[in-house]
Amino acid sequence: MKENIAINVNLSTSGSHLGGAAIASEYHSRSMAKYFDIELWRMWDCDEEFDMGPLKIKSFQSRTRFPHLEKFMPRRVRACLLDSNILNNLLSYRPSIVHLHNPIPSFAFENIAKQAANSGIKVVASTHGFFEVMHPNYSLKRYEKWLWQQTVTHPIRRALGYMDAVFALYPDEIKMLQEQGIPKHKIHLIPNGVNPFFLKPPQQEDYVHVQDKFGVNTTKPILLFIGNHTANKGLDTVMRVANQLSSPATIVVGGRLLSPDEPDQWAKALPPKPAIDVVFTDYLTLEEQRAFYHLATLLLFPSVSDTLPLTIIEAMACELPVVAYDVGGISYQLAHESGVVVPKGLFTEYLQTVETLLNDQDRCLYLSDNAKIRQQSIFSWESAANKTLSVYKSLLI
C-alpha cells in the first residue's frame, strides 16, 4: 500500500463538461496538494494525464456496463450504469485513502467504496449531490421515483456503510447523514470554497467584451441567472419573472442552451413584458461570468434541487446579492442576511422580493456586504483543505 497518499476520485456522467462537483473536487484537491501527496482521478471522455502545479490529474474514459442494451435504457438509468477503469487502478495502486466526490454513477460509487474498504484502504466522501439523491421529488413520475431509488439511492446508501468519514457541506446534511446510519463521529462539516479567480475584479476589457458580444442593455438593472437549463434549476421561474416583473430590467440567462430554438420557445411560452429584455448567452467563460457578476444587480437562483451551489458562493465573493429558493444548503450559505431565501415554490413571494430589491439600493448594498464577509469567513478552499487534511491524518494514525 502507498503510505500517506490520497486519491481524490471524481465520478461523472458528463465527461469534460464540468459540473459543480467536478469543479469542487479540482479546487479542493489543488488546495490540499500543496501540503499532502494527492492525485485527482476522474471519469472523463478520454484517457489523459497531466500536472496542475503540485497536483497530478489522471483521466479515465467512461464506458457503459451494458453497451448492447444502452439504446433501450432511459437516460437516467444509462447515467447510473457508466463506469471506468478507476477501480482496477485503485486496487493495483493501493493508496492509503480514497476520497470520493460526486455519487453518480451510483454503482461505480458503491463498487469503489466497497472494494477499497475491503482492501484495507480508508474511504471518505464529500456529499456533492447527496441532497438530490435522497430527495428525488422534482418532475418525476411514480415509476421514475421507484427506478431512481433502485438505481441511485439504494446503491449510495449501501456505499455509505463502507465510509471511514463523510464530509457534509452544510449543517442540515449532518442530520440527513445520521438518518442514513452514519455515526456522528464520522461526519465532518467542510463547506466548499470559491475559485480564487472570482476574488479578483474583472478587467475593463471584460466589461466591454460582454456588452458587445451579448448586446446587454446596462441602462436597466441586470438580473442574472447562471445554471443548467434542466427542469430542477429554476429557469422556468426566471422566465415567469420576465413575464410578470413590473420594473424595467435586463434578464441575462447564462448556461448552455438545450437547443438553438430554446430562446424562441421560452419567448412563446412566457413572453417577457415590453420593458424586460431577455438575453440568452449560451456557454460563458469564467471571464464572462465574473464580468456579469459585477455588472448585475441581483443573481436569481430559484433552483428546486441543489446542495451547496458554487454559483452562489461566486456571487457572494463578487458582492452580488442573491435571491434563491430555500433548498439544500442555500439557507446556510445566505444566513445572517447575506442574501434573501424564499420558501421553495412560492413564486409570488419570490417575484415580490425581486421587485422590492430593485427599488432598494441600500438593502442590496447591505446584503452584498454581509455576503462578502460570510464568504471570506466560511467558504474558502484553504479552510476546506486544512479541515480535510486533519481528518486524513487522523485516519492514518
TrEMBL record:
The lineage of its organism: Bacteria, Bacillati, Cyanobacteriota, Cyanophyceae, Acaryochloridales. Residues 72-196 form the Glycosyltransferase subfamily 4-like N-terminal domain. GO terms for molecular function: glycosyltransferase activity. Gene3D superfamilies: Glycogen Phosphorylase B. Residues 212-372 form the Glycosyl transferase family domain. It comes from the Bacteria. It holds the Pfam family Glyco_transf_4. Keywords: Transferase. This is Glycosyl transferase, group 1.
